[in-house]
């Protein structure tokens, strides 16, 4: 039997699966609708679409490092509820997503989702995600990932805070190997988790970002009723203070506020006997910037009682 647009539409309405998945299922079953439904159910793709519209803003941030310390990855996988995020099955799945990212050459999420799923080479990463959605019963989303491949001697260090609320990956370079570098990496990772810097150093801040912040601070000062003739000087002081908070190396070191993070790294360099450099870092916070689902338990119970 031929695979027609009308059949694809019918199968989509029956199952809620995506157009491409419906077309593939019909092709696989020679256009047999009933068999195609079974194929989609077996793959866990049926009714996934209905869940896809739900807000997934909970979940886990997770970081992992290869055994040889040459590669580090950090991922964020979202769920609808914190309950699912604490489920061991979900945690295992997130670890598998990180393992996939470890070997992936993808540079964006579309390419990543199109890859063959390492845990089951008969499906793609997207297919495996759809299957997991069907099993767990909530919308899930692989939101983002980042990968470090070490090019200099040193250490990649990971830190996970709050059971997966925040995950940090940091790379320190140094010509010498030392446990002090690992310890420093952990300390700075905790700093990053707590203080949420946006940049590594002042030189990384774009002029566009500075001008945007300057405009915001100017409006704030004028709204406070400050005289226009002193606003400009005030703004520079406030901007410098803000940039110290935004830039990791300029921040006060949380474990010793008598020094900055940069000075702390310099002190480690002296102890190690070789220059230690913070090459880069990434911080993922679960649900950061996402719309949060508003829960109304009484309303949910009422709907359930009404069928």
Present the secondary structure layout.
Elements: H1 5-15, H2 19-28, H3 33-42, H4 48-52, E1 58-65, E2 71-79, H5 82-85, H6 88-103, H7 109-114, H8 125-136, E3 141-149, E4 154-161, E5 166-173, H9 179-195, H10 207-223, H11 228-246, E6 252-253, E7 256-260, H12 261-272, E8 277-285, H13 297-305
Antiparallel strand pairs: 1-2, 2-3, 4-5, 5-8, 6-7
Helix pairs in contact: 1-2, 1-3, 2-3, 9-12, 10-11
Share of residues in strands: 15-25%
Order of helices and strands: HHHHEEHHHHEEEHHHEEHEH
- Report the C-alpha radius of gyration, rounded: 25 Å
Number of helices: 13
Largest sheet: 3 strands, antiparallel
Poorly predicted runs: 294-298
The helicity comes to 40-55%
The number of strands is 8
**Alpha-carbon distance between the two ends:** 38 Å
Oligomer, anyone? single chain
Characterization of this structure:
By secondary structure, the chain is of the alpha+beta class. Helix content is 48%, strand content 19%. The strands form three sheets. Strands 1-2-3 form a three-stranded antiparallel beta sheet. It has a three-stranded antiparallel beta sheet with strand order 4-5-8, with helices on one face. It has a two-stranded antiparallel sheet with strand order 6-7. Helix 1 packs across helix 2 and helix 10 crosses helix 11. It is globular. It starts with a helix and ends with a helix. About 2% of the residues have low confidence.
